[in-house]
Structures are given as structure tokens and as C-alpha cells.
């Protein structure tokens, strides 16, 4: 199976093509991916070599996809190949999705249908919401916190230390006063710490980022408790704005009976989700929903495009709403629910396998993110594309992750673990503070696993 290195080493010798002194066999002796101007008479040879490069790169991607465990991506996107004829067109949803522009190659009808679907999922009436299809979770968060700042210009942003890095990026970009809140061992926001910081700043409004699934531990902040805390600290409805960062779990928690729902019925101001995560898409994309009354704060009429500018990005990818629309139609509620159940079961399977191998591990209730002790070999981490923080790593059990992939991963990890700790010179790290004593299998806490979750 080709790797990125082998693709690079077999790239076309562009200099040879440009002189005309090349045949198909020369495609095996290139060195870089440099772009060079070619002579017209070399077009045939060039096409042969470009096809070879693309074929080998696809082989590389196929291999990498079969070992992708550490990131919030659903790589099962083959069904979207049906939409490949649309790649002939430039589709641009510039401006507001609910306003026509003077540019005719757009997909606003698909975009609005997608927005209606998510508005219904998150319980806000069709005439009460506004939103758009974004380039991913970061853009949704930037849009949401900009709205929060415009609504409450002197507001303080409160967010947990395990929030996505885009929240802190937004705070820097918008020069917001940001209060970082401690978290529990699970990764959930510590409402006692939130309460203490709210009381210290009672004279200023609160802009709250609520994590519906933290990036690394998959923890879900308790929205009901956060709202109760705000009320008990004397913050009335017009003195706080809540954004729900639901990048991954925005398409998971609505399908779980045991988990408290987040909803616009609970007084939140906005939600953002990444569509390339649980649903799956060939490129990063997402959905941002907020209350219709808020968008006027950002709207500007732009004569050049004959529509309103209301989004973070000006020109917007018009293909992504179609990909999302198509995926939702193919799967439907039933298909998404089945994907969620499969991911939950496979996450529990991986957790049990890691524990049986004597590896410190944690899985939050109704979560698909399995946290465990960081492997000692960087090549192993790169091979399985694991995401790591400190002494921890995690696997995000997405719909493309099969039992066979998990078995191969566990087998590989156990073999390497026996090598890493063979002579006792290096010991497994203590993760009691990070994932709880009951989940830690270091020398001091190993017996505690019997009482783990």
C-alpha cells in the first residue's frame, strides 16, 4: 500500500516532461510535487503521470483512512460519490442563505432545507431561527461568540478549560474578557467554580460557552445546572447569552434517551455542529443556528452581491449544503440513530479491551470518546493517528471504525506495551488526576480498576 513518502518518490519528473524527453516509465523517477509550466507537446505524457500520482495518492488516503482513530471524522463517505458530477460547477452561496443575490450558481434551497432540519432537531420554530452552513465547527463558534459580544458588548466570556481551541481564539480575536472555568475529572465544567467567578463579576453580563461534548474527553456540560447557576447568581435572561458548542454531539445527544437534551426551549442563544463528524462529508463543514432576532446585529446590505452579508465567511462553499442534504436524506433519523448506537457499543468494546489489557482508560457515560494512557512510541501514534494531550491519548469511535479496526489496534497496542514496559525501567503513567483513581492502572492505583465505570 502506498504511503505519502512513496507517492512523493514516484512523482513525475516535471523537468524531463518540460523538455519533451520523457515516457511513461519516467513517472517512476520524480522528487517533488512542484508545479512547473509544461510544453504543449508533452500533454499526453503529463496526463499519464498526473493520473499515476493521483492513483497513488488515493492509495495513500485509503491506507490512512484504515488507521484513523484519533479524530472526530466519519470517513464513510462513499455514497457521496453520486454527487461527483456537481464538481463541474462553481457553486457559491455568497451572503445570507435566506436572501437571493445576483449570482445564479448557488444552492440556497438545499441550504435552507438543511437548516430547517436542524432547527427542528434542536426545537426552534421555523420563523424564529436564523442560520447558515459553515466551513466547520470553528466558524460556527466564531459566529456565535461574535453575536454574543454584539448583544452584550461588555459581557465576560465563561468557558471551561477543556473547551475547543476555537473558543479561546474567538476571545482573542474579539478582545473579550475570558474567564476559564475548572473542570471535573470527566471533563465537564465545574459549576462551583463557575458560580464563584460569576459572583465576582456580577456587574457584567455573562456569555457562556457550553460544551455538548468536549473535544478530548467527550464530556457534556450540564446545561440545566449552568442555567440554574446563572439564575441563582442573579443573572436575568437579558444579562446572559449561552452558546452550545455541539461540534460532535449535536447529532448524538438528540438520539439518546438517557441524556438530558440541549434545546432552544431552554433559553440558549446559538448552537454549532460539525457535519463532517458524525454524518460525514468530503470536506469540513457544519451548521450554525441562532435566534432570528439576533442576526440584525451583524447584517449589512452589500450592493456588489445584491444581498445581505450576515456570515463570518463572505463567499461560502455551495457544495457542502448539498452534501449535508444528501447525507441526511440517505440516512434519515433511523440511520443516524443506528450509527449512534453502533458507535456507543464499539466504544464500550474498546474500553473493555483496554481494561482487560491492564491499560488505564476512561469512557464517559453515553460517550464515543475513549481516553487511555498515551503510547510511548511516536510512530505508533502517527500510524493510528491518535490525538494526545499530556499523558493521555484518545480514540473517537466514529461510524467508519469497525470492530476489526479496534481489534487490530488493541493487538498492536498490547504488543508494543509489552516491549515498552518489558524491563521495568519505564512504568505506565499515573492518570488518577486526569481520568479518576478508579480508571487508573498505574502501580499505585491498578486495583482501583475493579470499581471503574
From TrEMBL:
> What Gene Ontology terms describe what this protein does at the molecular function level?
carboxy-lyase activity; pyridoxal phosphate binding
Report the cofactors.
pyridoxal 5'-phosphate
Per the UniProt record, which residue ranges are transmembrane? Answer: none
**UniProt keywords, alphabetically:** Decarboxylase, Lyase, Pyridoxal phosphate
Transit peptide listed as a keyword? no
Q: Which Pfam families match?
A: Pyridoxal_deC
Report the superkingdom from the record: Eukaryota
Query: GO:BP terms for this protein?
Result: carboxylic acid metabolic process
The record's InterPro entries line, in alphabetical order, gives: Group_II_Decarboxylase (IPR051151), PyrdxlP-dep_de-COase (IPR002129), PyrdxlP-dep_Trfase (IPR015424), PyrdxlP-dep_Trfase_major (IPR015421), PyrdxlP-dep_Trfase_small (IPR015422)
List-wise, which residues carry N6-(pyridoxal phosphate)lysine?
277
NCBIfam families for the chain: PRK02769.1
Q: What is the similarity comment for this entry?
A: Belongs to the group II decarboxylase family.
What is the name of this protein?
Serine decarboxylase
Q: What is the lineage of its organism?
A: Eukaryota, Viridiplantae, Streptophyta, Embryophyta, Tracheophyta
